[in-house]
Design brief:
This protein is of the alpha/beta class. The chain has helices spanning 7-16, 31-40, 53-59, 64-71, 88-98, 111-118, 136-139, 143-148, 150-156, 167-181, 195-207, 215-222, 226-238, 267-273, 286-304, 348-353, 367-371, and strands at 20-24, 45-49, 76-80, 103-108, 126-130, 212-213, 242-246, 260-264, 310-315, 321-328, 331-337, 358-362. α9 crosses α14 (267-273), α10 (167-181) packs across α14 and α12 crosses α13. The longest helix is centred in the C-terminal third of the chain and has 19 residues, at 286-304.
């Protein structure tokens, strides 16, 4: 079963405009399938898998003449897992500038390796896209169907391979993904880390979804220093496993070193890390699951709408909280996430400081207008 991803059209349009399209995303979120679908609509396309040593060798340190010999009459060249190529940004720049008729699509499962290589050489030449796990708008044809699939999404997430599987097969797949090669496959050979610490950190973060996170407390729990804790979380973020949400503060400079919240890009991975795939009726972490789901699905929804937004959470010194603050241009909105429908008042401290900010509670009854 192939599910068409909503960024397919966005990537295609970017290529048509002469941009180098760069698609980021975790391993097995469907980057290769996306590239193959775009290739299928191209008369002459060339797919290059950089997990293969000989492909890496043919793209590393080559002249334009050598590259042209490799590409032949290809109209579209896909370089999959491009972070494996040394100085791939310079190679992509050479291709773009020397062969303007060739469309170039790069994919990468590690922004740490790929983004650092392409940022400067490809300035003004590229457009970046994030391929998330499956969105509600991709697995459901109607808002009603999206509501019916909420429990499945909260338990099994949105990895394309797991979605059509039976319960037992999906559990086994996600367990192996979470505990086997989730990050090991994404990090480059030059990335130095301790697997015991990384495994412990992932489990710790999985249990802390929706809670404020102190780097010092994480470091103390794992027996490492604060700088190491920050570095490891940064690696997980650049491998598209987790992402951080900063505090909302009028003075942005004061955010450095402050507390954060950490969420998982996929709840199936999160549940695999804690080995809990029970139905929602038997769980005590529904609040955390719902909050994580709402935040990441909102990211996907805004990406589909081509809307750029900044996101934060808010907490006062008196411990009043708001789950998500969204800035779109000069407009600010505040959202509180509750799995079951209930009345929640706008926190008094926030209302006094930001009286004109719209406040909404997102439960199952309101979710489709928020993410679909």
């Amino acid at each position: 079963m192939t599910i068409k991803r909503y960024i397919t059209e966005q990537v295609t349009q970017s290529l048509e405009k002469g941009n180098i399209a760069i698609v980021y995303g975790a391993r097995q979120t469907g980057k290769t399938t996306l590239a193959q679908l775009i290739l299928d609509d191209t008369a002459n396309g060339l797919y290059l898998n950089c997990d293969e040593p000989d492909i890496r060798a043919r793209l590393t340190g080559k002249t334009s003449t050598e590259l042209k010999s490799l590409f032949g009459n290809a109209e579209l060249v896909v370089v999959d897992e491009a972070q494996r190529i040394k100085d791939v940004g310079l190679t992509a720049k050479l291709i773009h500038d020397t062969f303007p008729d060739i469309k170039l699509l790069l994919t990468g499962s590690s922004s740490f390796d790929l983004a650092n290589s392409v940022k400067e050489p490809l300035t003004g030449r590229s457009q970046e896209f994030m391929l998330y796990p499956l969105a509600a708008t991709e697995v459901a044809k109607t808002p009603l169907e999206a509501e019916r699939l909420i429990e499945k999404s909260l338990i099994f997430g949105g990895y394309p391979k797991a979605w059509p599987m039976s319960h037992d097969d999906a559990v086994n797949y996600l367990r192996n993904l979470a505990n086997g090669y989730l990050y090991r496959d994404a990090f480059g050979s030059s990335t130095v880390y301790d697997t015991t610490i990384m495994d412990g950190l992932l489990r710790l973060l999985a249990f802390q979804v929706g809670n404020e996170m102190s780097y010092s407390e994480v470091a103390s729990h794992l027996g490492i220093n604060k700088d190491t804790a920050m570095r490891y979380i940064d690696l997980l973020e650049k491998a598209f496993i987790v992402f951080r949400l900063p505090q909302f503060r009028p003075n942005q400079r004061n955010e450095v070193g402050r507390l954060r919240k950490v969420y998982f890009y996929d709840l199936g991975v999160r549940n695999g890390l804690i080995n809990n795939f029970q139905a929602l009726d038997y769980r005590n972490d529904i609040g955390a699951l719902w909050e994580n789901y709402c935040v990441v699905e909102r990211y996907k929804y805004l990406q589909k709408q081509a809307t750029f937004a900044r996101h934060y959470y808010w907490r006062s010194v008196t411990r009043q909280e708001i789950d998500l603050i969204e800035e779109v241009g000069t407009n600010i909105s505040a959202y509180e996430f509750k799995y079951k429908d209930q009345k929640v008042k706008k926190p008094s401290v926030f209302d006094a400081e930001y009286p004109n900010v719209q406040f909404s509670v997102i439960s199952q009854k309101q979710i489709t207008g928020f993410i679909y």
